[in-house]
Amino acid sequence: MLNTDGINTITLTELNSEASLLTRMDRKYLVPPGDTQHVISHLAPRARVLQIDGLRHFRYASTYFDTPGLDAYFLAARKRRRRYKIRTRTYLDSGLCFLEVKTNGSREATVKDRFKYDPDDADRITPDGHLFVIERLVESGTCTPDEARTIADALVPVMDSTYSRTTLHLPHDEARATFDTQLTWDLFGPDGKRLERGVSVGHLNVVETKNPSTASPTDRLLWHQGHRPARISKYATGMALLHGKLPTNRWNRTIKRNLGRYWRQVQSRQLAA
Q1: Helix, strand or coil for residue 7?
Q2: Which of 200, 216, 236, 252 is 20–30 Å from 188 (CA)?
Q3: What are the backbone dihedrals phi and psi of residue 232, each rounded to the nearest 5 degrees, phi first?
């Protein structure tokens, strides 16, 4: 667990008001725990840590949806401009849940729209969720109304991801950084049931910087430590790693170099089967 003792706190309401950054430039890094803690400690005097009901570390669960042909995955793998990602995100400590549609705006900025959801529906698309997906895909310019309806009709759960997150706000820099630990990935089968083919990433944390445009102090600290942005998507990297037979494309270097031990585990399991 990351140590945030002594860092001033910020409430969720304040964070959403001051730095929601639903349209932003993201950079992601895979960082060992020791280097992660060093960054947090160095940022402490200028940062505020998100605290809710006395907690500073929060457990997240995300269920990702795709078509049976994995259209969203292949759009990301081929870096198509009009790509999308659809998931539910459940905040396990509070029970809050949202259906989220992420699309690409101008200059590769990520745009995220969310719709409040019942946690019991986290692994399915409800009728209201279906309409929300269509609306967001059309209004974002990602696809035509007919294409959006076809996608929404076909969506099924394909993968789960869980992790624990710590969030820092850097008010003077108009920036945020999240630090994800205890990352796990689990697949769904064609019948919509989770498979016993998961991977738990213990030796690396996912650090993500969220900035309006320019690099933040978090980025510069990570660069000084020798870390460079990694091509990692919790959805696409997890899918490529767990399936083993999907084209790894943009995530090949990350999987083979940073997540090689898990890649070999998956390959061994598939050979044994």
Answers
A1: coil
A2: 252
A3: -140, 130
Residue 28 has which token pair? 């992601």
The tokens of 105 are what? 């705006």
Distance CA 165, CA 93 (A): 11
Residue that is written with structure tokens 């035509």 in the block: 144
**pLDDT tens, residue by residue, 118-138:** 999 999 999 999 999 999 999
* pLDDT (tens digit per residue) in 138-171: 999 999 999 999 999 999 999 999 999 999 999 8
Cα 203 from Cα 80, distance rounded (Å): 31
| Cα(2)–Cα(164) distance, integer angstroms | 10
Contact 67, 156 (CB under 8 A): yes
- Give the C-alpha separation, 32 to 39, whole Å: 11
Q: What is the 3-state secondary structure (H, E, C) of 163-217?
A: EEEEEEEEHHHCEEEEEEEEEEEEEECCCCCECCCCEEECCCEEEEEEECCCCCH
Three state DSSP letters for 83-125: CEEEEEEEECCCCEEEEEEEEECHHHCEEEEEEECCHHHCCCC
List the structure tokens of 124.
Answer: 């399915």
